[in-house]
Design brief:
Organism: Pannonibacter phragmitetus
CATH superfamily: lambda repressor-like DNA-binding domains
Number of strands: 2
GO molecular function, one term: DNA binding
Radius of gyration: 12 Å
Protein name: HTH cro/C1-type domain-containing protein
Strand content: 5-15%
Helix content: 55-70%
Structural class: mainly alpha
CATH architecture: Orthogonal Bundle
CATH topology: 434 Repressor (Amino-terminal Domain)
Largest sheet: 2 strands, antiparallel
Number of domains: 1
Distance between the termini: 27 Å
Length: about 80
Amino acid sequence: MFNEAQMRAARALLGLSQAGIAELTALSLPTIKRMENVGPGRSTAANVEAVRRALEAAGVEFLAADAAGGVGVRLRRDVVEG
């Protein structure tokens, strides 16, 4: 699972607009906006999974909180190195 801040950060890393994520996932723009504003926990499991799959397929890795720090996102090395 990811939170709304991770979703916004992932989108920014990829240089995508909210409309771009909506297009990638075949979800409506209002759904994407809602997920980024109030969090994916208020969305259906299918919608959350669609966003997660699309962002991960584009190269995003969601990082869980651990002893070293809080949650985050990063791009896979193969995406960064091109």
